[in-house]
Design a protein that fits this description.
Length: 381
């Protein structure tokens, strides 16, 4: 089991959203033109995508095919995890290689909420969670958090500001659950121990620490009855422990990526957005090294770009979402083995410098028509 009790987990930061979005109909020709400017050869590029299996990712896939003139190789696992074991086959399928990785999140323009997406093919075209995999993973953590929010109480007792904590939350030997940074919540005595003022049937009462009093303010303690700590239980006051079967790029890979950032994710304004963003950051960081080391990519031009797909919920009559891409980082490798990475601001600038017109765009309708009209090939058995 990974050591998830680390108190000093740095929050993932640096991901800008404002002024960083680009619609796919602009992103894709720009990406293609950037590749050409790097010496990639038209007609010899094998694009690949590492997207979630969600059908909402279909429009970006179509746009990749349209602009690169080839259906993209599939490098993706559910949740936007990169299947790095597929590098070898991808490398064999093209002279020059492109990989686009994106985690995704829905956006409902009516409610202006992230994480929701209208499923037009459901009976009543209802909205559901998107990314569904991320939603599924974070639900357990949200439940644990909600329990803690309701079962840590702030109140006055004999003129002192006190905090009453549920017994289960105080048990540090649990193999899974939300664990508190107890020193931040409860006053410690001279020997560094937290001694309860009162032992109740399902909880213990302590003197509140000056840290928590400063954080929540005096008024949080003055209710006529004990008040749940609620939203004042901020991400720096707890962490999670869970025994996740960790198989690289297996079913639990996404959860494994995110568990140490869960306090930050579930207390964020838009947890699904923050989760997708963090997953993109972790996947870029993890994947770029596997490309550097991949034998099949040696001597080849490779461009690997990571970002976030924002699936704007389709309105009635729209076949696809209006997906926007937020670039995060890129890795560029040349045939001589030299490589560099590009950070978000520089990457955005580089993409914006590219033309949005792509003379190599394929006409999908015409391509399908010519397949329909082509002379039949008899398969001999
Ligand atoms: Zn998904």
């Amino acid at each position: 089991m990974p050591d998830l009790a680390a108190n000093m987990v740095a929050a993932v930061g640096g991901f800008q959203i404002q002024n960083m979005m680009m619609r796919y109909n602009l992103f894709m020709p720009r990406l293609y033109n950037w590749c050409i400017s790097l010496g990639f050869e038209p007609g010899k590029i094998m694009p690949s995508r590492a997207f979630c299996s969600d059908e909402s990712q279909g429009y970006p896939v179509i746009m990749i095919a349209r602009h690169f003139g080839a259906f993209p190789f599939n490098h993706g696992r559910v949740g936007g995890i990169v299947a790095t074991s597929r590098h070898g086959p991808h490398a064999e399928h093209g002279q020059d290689l492109v990989i686009i990785q994106a985690s995704h999140v829905g956006y409902d323009p009516e409610s202006k909420l992230f994480g929701s997406y209208r499923r037009l093919q459901t009976t009543d075209q209802e909205c559901g969670p998107n990314c569904g995999k991320i939603h599924h993973v974070i639900t357990w953590y949200e439940n644990e958090y909600q329990f803690a929010q309701q079962n840590i109480l702030l109140h006055m007792h004999q003129g002192k500001k006190c905090i009453t904590i549920d017994n289960q939350l105080l048990r540090e030997d649990r193999s899974e659950g939300l664990l508190l940074h107890i020193n931040s919540l409860v006053e410690t005595n001279k020997s560094g121990q937290q001694v309860p003022i009162k032992i109740l049937s399902t909880a213990r009462m302590f003197t509140a620490s000056s840290e928590i009093i400063n954080l929540v303010g005096d008024e949080a303690f003055t209710g006529t009855k004990p008040q749940p700590i609620g939203a004042n239980l901020t991400g720096n006051l707890f962490y999670f422990r869970r025994d996740i079967l960790n198989i690289d790029e297996g079913e639990n890979h996404l959860e494994h990526n995110m568990i140490r950032y869960m306090p930050q994710i579930i207390t964020a304004r838009s947890p699904m957005l923050t989760a997708a963003q963090i997953n993109t950051q972790i996947e870029f960081d993890r994947t770029f090294r596997t490309i550097v080391k991949e034998h099949g990519y040696k001597g080849k031009k490779v461009l690997f770009i990571s970002g976030l797909n924002i699936d704007i919920s389709p309105e009635e009559g729209q076949l696809f979402p209006l997906t926007k891409f937020i670039p995060w980082a890129a890795y560029i490798q040349d045939r001589d083995g030299s490589y560099s990475t590009m950070e978000q601001a520089q990457l955005m600038q580089k993409l914006e410098q590219q033309s949005t017109s792509n003379p190599d765009t394929i006409d999908m309708e015409a391509a399908i028509q010519s397949m329909t009209e082509a002379k039949e090939v008899k398969i001999e058995i």
